[in-house]
Amino acid sequence: QVQLVESGGGLVQAGGSLRLSCTASARTFSSYNVGWFRQAPGKEREFVAAITWSGARTYYVDSLKGRITISRDNAKNLVYLQMNGLKPEDTAVYYCAADASRMDYGLESRDEYELWGQGTQVTVSS
Fold this sequence. Notes:
The chain is mainly β. It is built from no helices and eleven strands. Strands 2, 4, 5, 6, 9, 10 and 11 form a seven-stranded mixed beta sheet that branches. The radius of gyration is 13 Å and the shape is globular.
């Protein structure tokens, strides 16, 4: 029913920054936990970051800590993924996903999410 839409991807030079956005077609998005995942060619979809429905807790994959920040503005129905110091190996399709359970755990797993966007391409040139 609810549709998620990612935006903000594009082509950047190594060391550059991007801010991805995720929004939903329903205001109930503000009650969902939201995660970001990415999938590079030939690799499995991997967890990047997650934020609880209230924004009180955030989670990050260890390999990207310090370079990414997840945040949300429920008044605007938006979740952001700020990415800095981008590297060519960050090239992937980035997906946002939503979980209506309001659990504060297990958000690193793809299985926790009921809704997925179509993805936005991030390409980092060397």
